[in-house]
Write a structure and sequence with these properties.
Layout: H1 7-16, H2 18-24, H3 29-54, H4 61-109, E1 113-118, E2 124-127, H5 129-135, H6 139-142, E3 168-176, E4 182-194, E5 197-206, H7 208-261, H8 269-293, E6 301-303, H9 305-313, H10 316-324, E7 328-333, E8 340-343, H11 345-361, E9 367-378, E10 391-400, H12 407-410, H13 431-441, E11 445-451, E12 454-464, E13 486-490, H14 494-506, E14 510-514, H15 517-526, E15 531-535, H16 544-554, E16 560-564, H17 569-577, E17 583-585, H18 590-610
Parallel strand pairs: 7-9, 13-14, 13-15, 15-16, 16-17
Antiparallel strand pairs: 1-2, 1-5, 3-4, 4-5, 6-8, 8-12, 9-10, 10-12, 11-12
Helix pairs in contact: 1-4, 3-4, 7-8, 7-14, 8-13, 9-11, 11-13, 15-16, 16-17
Length: about 600
């Protein structure tokens, strides 16, 4: 059995007999037979001549017959050898052709780009289809070009192998496509010898998608770190805010009760009003901490961003801002067909105020601040500082033509207490942290674009098709007087219990106070009350949610109002699902407390009327 020849052996055979193949490969079978007959006649004549010479002319019939037979045998053998040789040549050539086609098919089917480059001239002498597709040109345009025209342009002809003495190159490089765009690749190059010619065989793959995935992962990891950092600081801020609100209750609530008993001309009225105003300002700062902590439960209702913007532009805070920055021009571009959103009026108004204030302070000298609103339907996710999901949004945008935000600062602008503001003049440094948390709490998104020509903050709020109610907010104490109903105050802080009871008694309610959830449960085993004023966080002991869960096992329809300076949103939602009413945030005021108590007791009376 003969072994199957290799590709190299086939190539050597073809080269050895190439001249003969060129002469004979186009001959037909009839031509070959004619050549064999002629060869046979020539051989017969030669044999007869030789025999005649040997026999000195005495050629007999038998000799002629013998010579003819011998010549036929010899010529047949020669012809057979010729035919066999020609057949072998044709089979060899066909095998070589198929081998070349198979090699070409394999080369062109490889998804990696492949180049063969002359080491001396850096000329590309072969390229596959994948390389041509990656460069965006035809294969014919690559062949004969210098390799640095397409691959490793930044090396400027200094090949790592030919000029730097490396045996191979396996590294991340750059290639250029026909548009001059730089595309990252992983390239492998090694030395080969081709037809006695020193060459480089290079293979490479486009890693653009891999780079994009890496960048997305990096941003995702950075966001997770930022979220965890904000969460940790939020827990700290929330704890501080809770304690401060308990302290501020005495400063905000007591002056209100005292003022109710003072005559209009009392000399103590002005100082007490100042104390109350200072307490309210402190409470506003604590509100920022609570908003940042995102643990405060905010009541959301239909509202319109245009109304919020116009309300702020006519506020004392905005007038004060204009006085400090007289060279800044304010412009508005508000969409008159803007959809409503479901949100917290107080928190979003604070966001508008923070963004406008930051925009003004970003301008050095004179400049413009533009506040705009618009509707937008996002039909595919947007990738930016925040990734915006598909949906309908009302967008609030605040732009300035200041110097922009540096890339280092952009990574940290929403961190609490990270600020470029002047200490003692420009606030606490919580403005953008509060903005970020408000937007998150409203299930919205933030977009930030910035360059040397200015910065734009875009806030995406999900729309609602609910209408804004036309309720009158002007109230008096008489509007919310009770009928002697009994209210149980549950709070772990003594001063809070005292304040709450005094305010409830002002409305004409009877009160009972306990210092823990456990005490409340024990009291209600033997007694009934019309309403519970329930603190959410009490330490030590069970919290407000667990307290209410135990109470409704005793009195299934027990009404309650949630009160806290800080409450986890999930806990608030859970207790409200169990039947509790609205949430009131400390410090308490008569204006906050009266309407909510009246509304909840009204529900109780309605139920009594319905069931007889």
């Amino acid at each position: 059995m003969f072994e199957k020849p290799t590709y190299e052996e086939l190539e050597r055979r073809v080269k050895r007999y190439s001249s003969l193949i060129d002469k004979m490969k186009n001959l037909s079978l009839w031509h070959l037979l004619w050549m064999c007959i002629v060869a046979s006649e020539i051989i017969t004549a030669i044999i007869v001549s030789i025999m005649s010479t040997i026999l000195k002319g005495r050629v007999t019939y038998d000799y002629l017959i013998t010579g003819a037979v011998a010549s036929f045998i010899v010529s047949g053998f020669v012809v057979s050898m010729i035919l066999f040789f020609i057949k072998q040549l044709r089979e060899t050539e066909e095998a070589l052709r198929k081998s070349e086609e198979r090699t070409e098919a394999i080369q062109q089917s490889i998804q990696s780009g492949m180049l063969v480059i002359d080491i001396e001239t850096h000329e590309i002498i072969e390229a596959n289809q994948a390389a041509a597709a990656m460069f965006g040109v035809e294969r014919e345009e690559i062949i004969g070009s210098v390799c640095h025209q397409f691959v490793c342009p930044t090396e400027q002809g200094a090949c790592p192998i030919t000029d730097k003495g490396q045996h191979e190159d396996n590294a991340e490089r750059v290639m250029l496509n026909k548009d001059g765009e730089k595309i990252p690749i992983i390239k492998n190059a090694t030395r080969i010898t081709l037809d006695g010619r020193e060459c480089l065989l290079e293979s490479f793959v486009d890693i653009t998608e891999h780079k994009q995935v890496e960048e997305a992962l990096r941003k995702s990891e950075a966001k997770i770190v930022r979220y965890k950092k904000m969460e940790s600081l939020g827990l700290l801020a929330g704890g501080v805010a809770h304690d401060l609100n308990n302290v501020l209750s005495g400063i905000v609530s007591y002056p209100e009760l005292i003022l109710m008993g003072l005559p209009e001309d009392s000399k103590f009225r002005k100082p007490i009003e100042t104390i109350m105003e200072s307490g309210n300002r402190a409470a506003a700062i604590v509100e920022d901490l609570l908003t940042f902590a995102r643990g405060v439960a905010t009541i959301k209702e239909p509202l319109n961003l245009n109304n919020l913007v116009n309300g702020y532009l006519h506020s004392p805070e905005f007038n004060k801002l204009k006085q400090f920055h007289p060279t800044v021009t304010f412009k508005t571009n508000l969409d008159t067909e803007l959809f409503n959103i479901g949100g917290s009026h107080i928190n979003i108004r604070k966001v508008v105020m923070n963004l406008v204030s930051n925009a003004v302070e970003a301008i050095d000298g004179s400049g413009n601040v533009t506040i705009s609103t618009k509707n937008r339907y996002v039909d595919r996710p947007l990738r930016g500082y925040d990734d915006v999901n598909i949906g309908e949004y009302a967008i609030l945008a605040v732009s300035d033509d200041g110097l922009g935000i540096s890339s280092d600062d952009l990574e940290r602008i929403f961190e609490p207490f990270y600020t470029k503001k002047v200490m003692g003049r420009s606030g606490t440094g919580l403005g953008l942290a509060v903005t970020w948390n408000v937007v998150q709490d409203h299930k919205g998104y933030i977009g930030v674009t910035t360059d040397e020509n200015g910065t734009t903050f875009e806030l995406f709020f999900p729309i609602t098709r609910e209408k804004i109610s036309d309720k009158d907010l002007a109230i008096t104490i008489e509007d919310f007087k009770g009928d002697g109903e009994t209210i149980l105050v549950v709070d772990d802080v003594e001063s809070q219990r005292d304040i709450s009871c005094k305010m409830l008694e002002t409305f004409g309610y009877k009160t009972k106070a306990v210092s823990s959830g456990e005490e409340a449960v024990e009291y209600l085993k033997e007694n009934t009350v019309d309403l519970i004023l329930l603190d959410m966080i009490m330490d030590p002991g069970i919290n407000g949610r667990e307290t209410y869960e135990r109470i409704i096992k005793i009195h299934p329809n027990q009404k309650a109002i949630i009160v806290s300076g800080f409450a986890e949103t999930d806990d608030v939602k859970k207790i409200q699902k169990l039947g509790a009413g609205k949430y009131i945030k400390k410090p308490l005021t008569l204006e906050k407390l009266g309407p909510v108590i009246k509304e909840e007791l009204g529900k109780l009376r309605f139920q009594i009327d319905m069931h007889g």
